[in-house]
Amino acid sequence: MTDTTNTTDTDGMTAESTLGYEQARDELVEVVRRLEAGGSTLEESLALWERGEELARVCRRWLDGARARLDAALAGQTVQDGAEGDAADGSKGSAEAEG
Question: Comparing C-alpha atoms, which of 54, 36, 55, 58 is closest to residue 45?
Fold first, then answer.
């Protein structure tokens, strides 16, 4: 396994900040598999554990971002539905007043 803990790309960003959710999740699954399989030295196990923690943080950031996007979309939809409902209520009210 290649350790990208402290590597940077040409923009100076850490490898973790450029990982997509699926990449981080897949690598995390592999880290967990290796830890569960055993046979690693204490130092290797600690390095794997630390990498797993970093990958879990990457996944959490992606999931938090997705949740925020969903919440924003739902909030926008609620506001839009409310505005459409207000417009519909206003037109019914004026029609009832005229009728």
Answer: 36
* Cβ contacts of 67-75, under 8 Å, gap ≥ 24: none
For the chain (length 99 residues), average pLDDT per consecutive 10?
Answer: 43 64 97 97 98 97 96 86 68 50
Q: Which two tokens stand for residue 26?
A: 């897949």
How far, in Å, CA of 26 to CA of 34, rounded?
13
Tell me the two tokens of residue 74: 């739902």
Residues 42, 31 contacting (CB under 8 angstroms): no
Other CB atoms within a 10 A radius of the CB of residue 67 amount to 10
CB 56 within 8 A of CB 28: yes
